[in-house]
Design a protein that fits this description.
The complex is a heterodimer.
Chain A lengths: L1 E2 L8 E4 L2 E12 L5 E9 L5 E7 L3 E4 L3 E10 L3 E6 L5 E5 H4 L11 E7 L2 E6 L3 E9 L12 E6 L4 E5 L7 E5 L5 E4 L3
Antiparallel strand pairs in A: 1-6, 2-3, 2-6, 3-4, 4-5, 7-8, 7-10, 8-9, 10-11, 12-13, 12-15, 13-14, 15-16
Chain B lengths: L7 E5 L5 H17 L5 E5 L2 H7 L9 E4 L2 E5 L13 E5 L6 H10 L2 E5 L8 H4 L3 E2 L6 E5 L20 H6 L9 E6 L7 H7 L5 E6 L2 H8 L8 E4 L6 H10 L2 E5 L1 H10 L3 E4 L7 H14 L5 H14 L7 H13 L1 H18 L2 H11 L1
Parallel strand pairs in B: 1-2, 1-5, 2-4, 5-6, 6-8, 9-10, 9-12, 10-11, 12-13
Antiparallel strand pairs in B: 3-4, 7-8
Helix pairs in contact in B: 1-2, 6-12, 8-9, 11-12
The chains are: A mainly beta, B alpha/beta.
Amino acid sequence: MKLAGDVRSGNIIKRGNDLFLIVKCEYYRAARQNAIIKMKLKNMETNALSETSYTITDKLDDVRLDVKKMQYLYATNDAYSFMDQESFDQVEITKEDLGDAIYFILEEQVVDILFYEGKAVSIDLPKSANLKVTYAEEVTRGDSSGKVLKPATVETGLEVQVPYFIKEGEIIIVDTTTKEYVGREQK
Amino acid sequence: MNLTNNNVDIHCSVIDNYGDAGIALRLANNYSEVFPLAEVRVFIDDLIVLNKIESLINPDLKSQIIHNVLFVDVNKVDMNSISPASLVITLLQTPLPEGYHQKVLIESQLIIIIEGISAEKWVKEIHGSQSYSGGKALKFFYIPGFSADSGGLLFGNESKSRINDFLNHFDLFPSSDFLSGVLFHYGDDLNVMLECLNVQKKDIYLFVCGEKSQNAIKKIDLKQGSLKLLYPKFYNQSDFDDLLKSSDFNFIRGEDSLIQAINAQNPLFWQIYSQADSAHLAKLDAFLGVLELNFSDQKLFNDYKKLMFYYNGVSKLNRSEIEDIIYSFMNNLDKIRAIFQQLRKDLLVKGNLIERLIKFIEQI
């Protein structure tokens, strides 16, 4: 069992007898300290896509799959290629199956690839990823709008709300579950 | 969805004092008015708080029926032995007791999670979205809000304007040329704002409500001026609704008070419930976005927004800025009142929460 707040894109969950790949997780801050997560799920048997929302404290049946360390080589329009570092075998995972995980992997990075019945299906992401800011809005001095966050784009194309002091070129730590800013990489 | 009957179980865990219990009480009463023959049950963990806002509640009892609603103290009954209603509502993600929850999955038809209100854009993404219950019962999120694609607002019944009643309790019988207001605020940072209210042309009777507010305000040393601070006993829900309606302006906090202050159609300032990571600021900003649509005077709105941020501790203002804004606010009370009258009118056209909830269930 895993709390819904602890799963992320690429994880597999079980509902009844069906296995579902989590393609996308969107976090919404509800009242109090609780969040609601809207997940886009892919049925592993039928490939049908569906959406479901959970509270972060909902308990989900997570599924343990075979894991292999592989290096991310390159991406085409539809798929991402990974190479086994020992056998040099290559596998592809479709962009659709990777979902939001594509925002957290960089070329040449070694990642954990999940296999279901011998087929590579997704990535087991770490809790956070360090990503370079490629665009961040400038904050005007004396801005009294009350806003404490501003949008920034990182090298993988993900848009993240960051504190006003973050500048282009900095490496930030992003939570791979919530896609939220966690902190700045310390030099 | 056709429910086998209209019986409902409403679950509430009291965390932020009166607001949580207030929403449960209001929802139960509204639901019971629509379905007078239905068994409406409220399962709550703090009858002492509930007693404050509904004085007929006896906090020593395990269960009791007040105005056709059964209130159950979850700390005093064996929840595992209770058969759930066909419709189960949890407020603000109140967890269901485990044994009872297992029965809900099999015996109930529908679980609705009613969340806190928000004017944020994400509401339309989540409101009405289905969750996975793990059992036979279907489960949905219901998000109260301001837009047509939200769950609406839980307005109380029509409240009464009776300021003289409230003042007479303090042996005050003022002439007609005065103003009155409500202050319900957590924090001790309102010195300058109160000093500005203390130098107005008209006398202002300010009802400082709630123990925390009263303790904080009593520490402020105000010179004799236009502001008369009143420290009433705790008002029950119905009286507090009437006080909001009776006052010329309301400084309030929490969700239920915000909704009833909008229902009262008087100028208001809202202290929002503070969340981790400043998530509440986005909610405050979104609420201001709703109001901005109703303000035709941009300067007045900008001042209003500045004071709202200041009231929430988001931004700092110097004394002269606060003086200017309070001056502007006090001189535009009628104009701002008209904005809130229009807002309420627009919201009621879209439907009260209870009407929209019933329609939502029918459409599942």
